[in-house]
Write a structure and sequence with these properties.
Layout: E1 11-17, E2 33-35, H1 38-49, E3 57-64, H2 70-82, E4 89-92, E5 99-102, E6 106-114, H3 121-134, E7 145-153, E8 156-164, H4 170-188, H5 201-212, H6 215-228, E9 252-258, H7 261-274, H8 278-294, E10 300-306, E11 320-326, H9 335-349, H10 357-366, E12 377-381, E13 387-389, E14 392-401, E15 407-413, E16 420-427, H11 433-452, H12 466-473
């Protein structure tokens, strides 16, 4: 294991910046003071219980293959921040409960490292970024972001953006990076870029309050209450998932898979054949894998979903929601059958996506359900479109999407399926690295088999032998000694 001393930045770009006068930014101080949203308040209390835990940091890494002007890059970055009202938020406690306030200015810093003369630039880069991800952001005293720019050589730069989840969600990461590429390209060509109004937070909170008082809220509540009262159990890969002490945020273990171009092409063909979005195909694929591995025929999954409207589609903020997702799988079902079933299920619950999972948890408690865990997370981010920085191609890599309760499978793609990657995230309090290695091999095997034989019954798709399945579900998940008793 290589050990490095954290190097000092070659240069630090620092400035106190203020937001421009965009829609809603000229509000009075009283109008800029908000209670936390339902999605934010859980993050706030979890972070207060464990202030030094970095689990709620989101991160994205952009590799740019061309010469970058660091000063111009810093100017572009400041412009993007100015368009994001959520990045001017500070958070504090009050007699009425936790609050957030839109500040008139924020301290911006970009640490620039020139590693072109280093003997091990990639290793040092990993050390710098891992160190940044391991240091929590104090959301009451620091901006909810931090940035690094690293130079490997004249044709390879790496930018890393790290944000606190209380300010933005995973969808917002792509919004931010896309806008950064656009502004840098404009400035590089001496073109003016117009300040974009991405929508003010006051409008988002007003719309939320209107929804909570509307008939739509009541209809959505009835829909999800009736669904949850069926008593469908969560799907588990580890039967200790419901025994973690409340607030336990284990270390995230991650492995990644990159699908071959031929597999991407076949999945896009399946999407067209079934007349279903590619995201639904990927949700089906990952859900079927967990079903096969766990042996559950019927169980719940957690499905992150964007609770956005057309009005706030481009607003970086914490607007994600989670809904319980049930896909019954019978031995003779084939992959195509399940894609169609998934599309029907999502079409049915999609109009009710604004009802918060925190409200669902509250209902579960009221009907005597002590466990509010919906099951493994199946997530698809379909907005990872091609990035350009002044005509230089760039690739993005997610570094973190926040804490992992048990198992999280996240697929990334663009609308044309030019690439598909999958992150396998596990909670270290429940799973071992050895387990994760075998899980990764099993998923690769299942993906290849399902794509090659979409008409074959799920039960016959290659995954694991009975002995391997017993090992991965029992022996390598024997982490009981790591778990503290509930109090």
């Amino acid at each position: 294991m290589k050990i490095f001393n954290l190097p000092s930045p070659t240069e630090i770009y620092f400035e106190v910046i203020s937001p421009p006068l965009i829609a809603g930014s000229d509000l009075s101080p009283e109008q800029k003071n908000f209670s936390l949203s339902a999605g934010q308040i859980g993050i706030w209390f979890a972070q207060q219980l464990d202030p030094k835990n970095p689990a709620f940091l989101l991160g994205e890494q952009i590799d740019i293959y061309g010469e970058i002007n660091p000063g111009l890059f810093s100017k572009s970055l400041k412009s993007v921040i100015q368009e994001c009202e959520s990045l001017f938020l500070t958070f504090f406690d009050s007699p009425e409960g936790p609050k957030q306030y839109v500040q008139n200015s924020v301290c911006y810093t970009l640490d620039y490292y020139d590693l072109s003369n280093s003997e091990q630039p990639l290793d040092i880069s990993k050390f710098i970024i891992d160190s940044a991800l391991s240091e929590p952001i104090d959301i009451s005293h620091e901006p909810p972001f931090k940035f690094k720019l690293l130079k490997f050589n004249s044709s390879h730069y790496r930018w890393t953006g790290i944000f606190h989840h209380i300010a933005i969600d995973g969808y917002s990461l792509a919004l931010f990076s896309n806008r950064l590429g656009d502004i840098y390209s404009s400035l590089s060509n001496n073109s003016e870029h117009l300040i974009e109004s991405n929508g003010s937070l006051s409008k988002i909170f007003n719309a939320t309050n209107e929804y909570n008082l509307s008939n739509d809220y009541n209809k959505d509540k009835i829909f999800w209450d009736e669904f949850l009262e069926q008593g469908i159990p969560p799907t588990f890969l580890n039967n200790k998932s419901d025994r973690l002490p409340k607030g336990s945020l284990g270390k995230r273990l991650r492995k990644s898979i990159l699908l071959s171009p031929s597999s991407c092409k076949k999945l896009l063909e399946l999407s067209n054949k079934c007349n279903s979005p590619l995201s639904n195909v990927l949700i089906t694929l990952l859900t079927a894998f967990i079903h096969r591995l766990s042996g559950f025929q019927d169980g719940l999954f957690s499905l992150p979903i964007s609770a956005r409207t057309d009005a706030n589609r481009r607003t970086p903020f914490m607007l994600s929601n989670i809904v319980p997702f049930e896909l019954k799988i019978y031995p003779n079902d084939c992959f195509i059958d399940l894609i169609l079933a998934t599309s029907r299920i999502i079409k049915n619950f999609y109009p009710h996506r604004f009802y918060r999972w925190e409200e669902m948890n509250r209902h579960q408690s009221q009907i005597g359900k002590s466990n509010t865990f919906f099951g493994p997370v199946i997530n698809v981010l379909s907005n990872h479109n091609k990035l350009l920085f002044n005509n230089f191609t760039a690739t993005r890599t997610n570094l973190s999407l926040g804490p992992v309760d048990d198992v999280s499978l996240t697929a990334y793609t663009d609308k044309d399926a030019t690439f598909i990657s999958i992150d396998i995230d596990l909670n270290s309090l429940l799973h071992t690295e050895e387990y994760q290695d075998t899980l990764t091999v099993a998923l690769e095997d299942f993906l290849e088999s399902a794509v090659a034989n979409p008409d074959q019954s799920i039960s016959k798709l290659s995954i694991l032998s009975p002995d391997e399945r017993h090992t991965i579900l029992q022996k390598w998940n024997d982490t009981e000694q790591l778990l503290a008793p509930k109090t």
